[in-house]
Amino acid sequence: MCPEILSLRLHNTAPVFAFLLREVKVPAHHLPRVICRRPRLLVSDVETRLRPTLYFLQSIGIHEVYKHTDLLSASVEDKYLPKIEYFEKVGFAYHDSVSMFRRFPALFCYSVKDNFEPKYNYFVVEMGRDLKELKEFPQYFSFSLEKRIKPRHQCCVERGVCFPLPLMLKMKDEDFRKRLDVCCNSSMPKSNSPLWGLQICK
């Protein structure tokens, strides 16, 4: 994962461990897991990379950075700002874009070209849904387009059902099928009912 560690002088790791413990507030017993998950932290300079990235994450409202230490070794300018700017370009206000990353920091780990673009285009063109749903559920981008998003959306279209994004994507396959069957087998509300015209099956 990080061959540079082989040429690392052990005493050079002291500032990294001190930074993780004192500034990021990583519990000492979590350090082995943190390093195993992101060994590049050991070869990242505290002054020029780790601390500026920490300040950036905190500035957008991600305060428990010790839960997202894998984000610290990346460049804010090269990796993170372009991803926020992508959402601005497709129609989100800056504060809404930042809110998505604050809600779901793992969003910073995904590729614009390989993840954001195809999933956003499918959401807008094929699903025709409101951008507000993405703002409230940015975890949408964590699901496979081919294995989860497309098949489930197509099932809903075929059955004439519209689930909220979290309900449509988070359930296991068996639970999804059961929920779909329940909705499709339920009787339609009367025209004078407040539920008339409501397509979302909760």
TrEMBL record:
It comes from Chenopodium quinoa (Quinoa). Belongs to the mTERF family. Pfam families: mTERF. The keyword Transit peptide applies. Transmembrane segments: none annotated. InterPro entries: MTERF (IPR003690), MTERF_sf (IPR038538). The keyword Nucleotidyltransferase does not apply. PANTHER family: CGI-12 PROTEIN-RELATED, OS03G0360600 PROTEIN. Keywords: Transcription, Transcription regulation, Transcription termination, Transit peptide. GO terms for molecular function: nucleic acid binding. GO terms for biological process: DNA-templated transcription termination. This is Uncharacterized protein.
